[in-house]
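Morning F.,

Quick status update on the modeling queue. The single chain you submitted on Monday has been processed. Sequence for confirmation:
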Amino acid sequence: MTALAGWIAWGASGHAKVLRECLSDRGVPLAAVFDNEPSVAAPFPDVPLFIGREGFASWRQAHPSTYGFVVAIGGARGQVRCELHTWLESEGLVSMSAIHRTAFVASDAKLAAGCHVLATAAVCVGVELGRQTIINTGATVDHECSLGDGVHIGPGAHVGGCVAIEDHAFVGIGASILPRVRIGRGATIGAGAVVTMDVPAGTTVVGVPARPMRNP
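Structure tokens below.
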């Protein structure tokens, strides 16, 4: 594999700060941060911030070497993460996964490109994670779970064994999903919810036990 000249983060939020700390032992410098929001503040005083794809094109012209990238966008924006992943690879950058030194990842777990497994999180035996999936601080994914692309398991959330979570679903802070449940594509599990049954695609559930959120 070609040595990286550095790496970039797309997203200037707090998640970029988390990922920089997570990747601090790689020995590869953070070269630039990018964001689509013109009013966003630079997250680091020592790293330049560029806005949008025009900013990226300008930076890339001056930096044609091989760089890695992370998509530093959290929340329920898994589809956005996946789209940026595809585009940045097409621009010749190399996807980087971020596994915190305090996280546990089972030896037979399968992690696709661009996954983030953050501090004290656990990815247990037989788990499969799709690309650009985030297992946030202190979250756990138990045995033989299958998570699709762009899934986000929020801080302190717990996923029981043999759960299937489809693409772009979001599990909020402190939520729990009981074993053998299926979470549909793009579904949202509210913070602190306890999910005891399958959740259809695109549905938001809240409460204990979790129930679909009613429109006001």
